[in-house]
Amino acid sequence: MIEWNDEQFLLGVEEMDETHREFVERVNRLDGAKGEAFAAAFGELLAHTREHFANEDRLMEESRFAATTEHRGEHRRVLADLERLNGRVAAGRPAMARAYLAEVPNWFRHHAATMDSALAAHLKR
Ligand SMILES: [Fe+2]
Ligand SMILES: [Fe+2]
Fold first, then answer.
1. Taking burial as the number of CB atoms within 10 A of a residue's CB, which of 90, 91, 97, 100 is the most buried?
2. How far is the CA of 117 from the centre of ligand 1 (A)?
């Protein structure tokens, strides 16, 4: 579970903040989900994250953000994990996805505070 906290998460770029709120909601929704509900919610998290990252990648490109390659690479790595796990979940094997989800709150807190926060600061300049 990720507890939303304005002070910790708000970056001051509305489209990023809105996406991050939804990301947190979707991760939290998976917490108590079981069976088909879990599989559906995991698929939705994957679809949402695809858009989330694609939008940030576009913002980086349009604004000629210096750390684009690094930030894009991190998005790609996480998305590849989610794609692979979604395949297992869809095949009725959610154990690895559940274990992975336990690490997502820390990943997100770190990503938001570093790469996303640097991008937001750059966009606001
Ligand atoms: Fe983000
Ligand atoms: Fe990001």
1. 97
2. 9
On whether residue 19 sits in a domain, the answer given is: no
Residue 27 lies in a domain: no
Least distant ligand from the CA of 78: 2
Q: Is 22 contained in some domain? A: no
User: How many domains, the chain?
Assistant: 1
* pLDDT tens, the chain, 125 aa long: 999 999 999 999 999 999 999 999 999 999 999 999 999 999 999 999 999 999 999 999 999 999 999 999 999 999 999 999 999 999 999 999 999 999 999 999 999 999 999 999 999 99
CB 115 within 8 A of CB 55: no
Ligand 2 centroid, distance to 116 Cα (angstroms): 5
Joined tokens for residue 61: 């490109």
Residue 88: domain span:
41-124
Cα–Cα distance, 49 to 53 (Å, whole number): 6
CA separation for the pair 125, 121 (Å, rounded) = 6
Decide if 70 is inside a domain.
Answer: yes
